[in-house]
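USER: I would love a firmer grasp of how sequence relates to backbone shape in proteins. This is the protein in question:
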Amino acid sequence: MRYSRKRVVITGMGAITPLGESVDEYWNSLVAGKSGIGPLTLVDASEFPSKIAGEVAGFDPVQYIEPRQARRMARFSQMAVAASGIALEDSGVNLSGEASGRLGVVMGNGIGGFPTTEENTRILVEKGGMKMSPHFISMILPNMASANVSRIYGLKGYTSTIITACAAGNQAIGEAAVALQRGVADLVVAGGCEAGICEIGLGGFNVIRALSRHNEDPAGASRPSRPRSLSTGWADCMMDRASSLFANDSMYRAARSAVSHPSTTQPASDAAPRISRKSSSALSSASLLTTRARSSTDETS
């Protein structure tokens, strides 16, 4: 298959991470060498060797989502919707002026609604299956992050979910870029999310020694370059976070810009990509991508 190779650039970003609840706060913490790992508070870790994690402390979904909608989403979906909203706002794109069928979503995650699964399993055992949440299935499926972003923001075009563990977020961004280059969408929200901190998650990762046990030094607990040993386990920690990107294809962006600003628009080949990093309130890490046309069109097979 042959398609135009178009540049994809970031035009809006948002972040909800253990290191901060805005892009600036997150970035500044990274530059300062701060760690987002600390003692677990979302779950009782007393029975587990690893008692630390990267939590997004104080995340309140109703700051970004209507309360009734928020109650029907698992935490990973809430973060994805929040992140995507910040990215969309940061981009300055007016969605009401766009064709909804040309707006897409590609989100990545590893395990979906683990805490919600644990909660409803307890209800099943203690009270019976008919007492489980009627929204259980639609809350836990990994694809519900992209589905909820699509539904809430009216992005009715190309939609997909990448489930490749730790690589899912990055792969989702790449998939979104290729979708734009292929011309199947004009704008795409892309990124990743995860919120698997619960006893099931802790148990599963602890028994295979995949979590750091350096509880006395949370900030220095993640040691990916150190040799693995049975006594210390893998130097890794469970994390809370989400990310999104908003992208559009170059020819589309140039055409929309020409319509909106006919007297000031530069040729697409000369226009510099705009990268916005303004502060915003809490959201999972999110970014908005846009593409621009090159002076000559490259073809690839």
